[in-house]
Amino acid sequence: MERKEFFDWLSTYTDAEKCLECFDHQKDFFRVNTLKITKEHFLEISKLKCEQSPTYDLAFEQKEQTQIGKTWEYFLGYIYPQSLPSILVSTILDPKPGETVGDVAAAPGSKFSHLAALMNNTGILFGNDQKEKLSALYATINRMNVLNCIVMFGDAVKMKLPFEFDKLLVDAPCTALGSGPEAYTRWDVSHSQKISFLQEKMLIRAFDNLKQGGELVYSTCTYAKEENEEVVKKLLEARSDNARLADINVEFPHAKGLSDYGSEFAKTIRIYPQHLNSEGFFVAKIKKL
Fold first, then answer.
1. Nearest to 255 by CA among 6, 4, 19, 7
2. C-alpha to C-alpha distance for 231 and 246, rounded to whole angstroms
């Protein structure tokens, strides 16, 4: 898709001019890993030029061009380079110590390792992904000192386990329009329509693995409604007896989900680059009654 065509399409969702301007100048962030070091100790010993985000106290904006993956802070597992919205997704799921939590598309481990930190390495943290992606996940687990995990490989569409979850994360494979300034050049609407079928099946299967009263977060780093509100709407219709959208109570800048699919979608959130000077995201929280 050409930039002008993408601009017109994006204008149906948000202020495309502001979005693309910020899109081309996204800031780089990393997260301090409290499984290895406290924020205070990190700030004492690290020489990285960074500034704490006002949105989340463990997220830091890089203030100089540094290859984070080549720093000793990264090598020792003290930090994880991650966009700010990606960091915030795990806080929206809000796993508690001692809970049974799952990440059905866990590799390479950015959110997975954050979930472990939020759980203080207690309870059970289950991770699943395709077999060829597990080496990256294992590397993150080892570097970040994740101890409370079980890992398996399998088709998330067919996943059925002998236990149920308090919390589940479905950070679904998507067209990633929010992830980089050139993503739209490899995309058209038909791509979103094709992948939404997989996303829907993943989401319904994950929901069926929740305990009664459990909560699920569905997230993507894309803008297309076909991969976001439409997928969630299909889950709500397929499990109309016990699936309900839950409020996402956050204070950082964001837009409400599209009302095209019903007024209740104001409970979902859309994060555009102009909100946090980072990548775009969609997030929905669903409760199993």
1. 19
2. 16
Please give the helix or strand (H or E) that residue 128 lies within, else none: strand 124-129
The backbone torsions φ and ψ at residue 137, rounded to the nearest 5 degrees and listed phi first, read -65, -45
Please, what is the Cα angle at 91 between 65 and 89, to 5 degrees?
65
210 and 268 both lie in a single domain = yes
According to the model, what pLDDT value does residue 161 have? 76
Identify whether residues 22 and 40 lie together within a single domain.
Answer: no
Is residue 221 annotated as a catalytic residue, yes or no?
yes
Which of these is catalytic: 19, 149, 174, 221? 221
Structure-block tokens of residue 67: 């290859």
pLDDT tens profile 107-133: 999 999 999 999 999 999 999 999 999
Residue 151: beta bridge partners?
127
Domain that holds residue 259: 3-26+83-288
Residue 43 sits in the same domain as residue 103: no
Q: Are 113 and 144 in contact (CB under 8 A)?
A: yes
On whether the CB atoms of residues 128 and 20 are closer than 8 A, the answer is no
φ/ψ bin of 144: left (φ > 0), alpha (ψ from -120 to 50), beta (otherwise): alpha
Instruction: For CA atoms 77, 79, 82, 88, give the dihedral sign.
Output: positive
Last residue of a domain, one of 47, 81, 115: 81
Identify the bridge partners of residue 59 per DSSP, sorted by sequence position: 31
The pTM (predicted TM-score) of the whole model is 0.96
